[in-house]
Amino acid sequence: MDLHYNDGASCSYDPGAETDVHLYTDHIYEHRPETDFSPDDHALGRLYGETNEVQEWRNWKAELAYWIPRDFEGPVAGPAFPLAPDAKEIAYFYQIFDIQLISYLVRATNRYAQQRRWENPKETKTKWYPVTVAEMKAFIGILIIMGYNKQPHITHYWSTDDDLGNLLVSKTMSRARFKQIMKYLSYSDHPYARPGTEAARGQKEAERQDPLVRVKAVVERINRNSRCARNPGAEIVLDESCIGLKGRKPMKVLTQGRSSSIKSGYQIYSVSDPQNGYIYLDDVWYPNKELAYSEGHLRFHGDNTALQIADGLLRSFYNFNHRVYFDSVAVTAQFLDYLNAHNTYGCGTAKDGLPHDIRVLEPKDMVPGQMVNMQDGPLLVTAWFDRKKWVVMSTVTNPNAKWSSTKRKVRLPDGSVEAKCIPVPLNVKLLQQFTKESEFGEQLRANFGFGKPSRRLHR
């Protein structure tokens, strides 16, 4: 019984058939063909390599010229599939966690249970019935409940005490059956290997090379479904975040030097909708990870790993004139040129490759509201001082666009404090607005988890 996803097959599902799990792969939101240019071209060669000679290409000017990005040309934002007027939230959930994915988990779990019980006769003392699609749906639903209905211990969900327990959970599935499914739950087609055998050592080596190897098929499927279930609007946010984790894990990274209170954990890059926090795509980064690219596609080169990951995540959004706002990811002039060549515009804070006049500006020499702009073609770099010095690099606005304003308490020369309106550049205002709106989704995900904390990521 093969558990691999077979892209290109039909979407039919027969729970009684002993055939492969077929997956539907017609993407609802296909990206357009890439812009026709060669990376060897003298004028655009800088897009594909960050070298010391890059700055020689730049022609920064303090005199701003008119330039405006093209209008967004993608589909209308919203669900990419028809919804019935009386449709409930579960209909959208099944677009992301579809029946093919659930049946894949059923087959993987049953196979793992069969092999493990064969290798460990002691486990056959307890009776095992193969899990069904209906049971797997109920099991996933219980995990969702455990994410927002916190109990001290997993067994407390079946408690009959007045101050504990969850009636819906106890009516849906018995505690013994839940723990049995949890024991044999598997996310991959890797066969069971008895500890200490050559097969087990081979699997450990594969996990050292790729810690996500056992869950990769599920992660990729959910990513694909999330991307296809909803059409994005003109604005999207690419964010870097960290899921806190204590202990030793091969994917754990340190967060030294960041403002976050999380010191170490899983490093996540995601593309989300700033209006509602919906995640279209995400990627887990860990040390020594090899970035995968589709064969035949041009890609962004350089030493900046974060921007290489961003290129991979944004590839299906190219050539629709999206506005991408980068949160916690510093952009470079070369990367924004690269996006512009793919009919995509970007805006984010910048640290490297800045014009000399902006690079030498010290915060102590600036006053609140002061701004300095430099332009090179569609690329605008703005240094602005509020409570700190902001340096924003963007291609999303007209350099001559009218700035907005905000109220700040300003200390006057005589020592008194007065509320004044200070100017805010439009590109800074847009970056603050859309990255702040995207934090709403992060707050929801922080309060509504999935399941109970686990010592192991996968089996």
Verbal overview:
- The protein is an alpha+beta fold.
- Helices cover 29% and strands 18% of the residues.
- The chain has helices at residues 89-96, 99-119, 133-148, 167-172, 175-184, 198-209, 216-229, 305-314, 333-341, 356-359, 426-447, and strands at residues 6-7, 22-23, 78-79, 230-231, 235-244, 252-254, 264-272, 279-285, 323-327, 345-349, 371-376, 379-385, 389-394, 404-411, 417-424.
- The strands form 4 sheets. Strands 5, 6, 7, 8, 9, 10, 11, 12 and 13 form a 9-stranded mixed beta sheet that branches.
- Strand 14 and strand 15 form a beta hairpin.
- The model is unreliable at 1-55 and 455-459 (pLDDT under 50).
Helix-residue proportion: 25-40%
SS-based class? alpha+beta
Q: How many helical elements?
A: 11
Mean pLDDT: 79
Q: Looking at the structure, what is the overall shape?
A: elongated
Q: Mind telling me the C-alpha Rg?
A: 26 Å
The run of helices and strands is EEEHHHHHHHEEEEEHEHEHEEEEEH
- Work out the strand percent: 15-25%
Task: Report the strand count.
Answer: 15
Low-pLDDT residue intervals, each spanning 5 or more residues: 1-55, 455-459
Please give the largest β-sheet: 9 strands, mixed
How far the N terminus sits from the C terminus, by CA atoms, comes to 19 Å
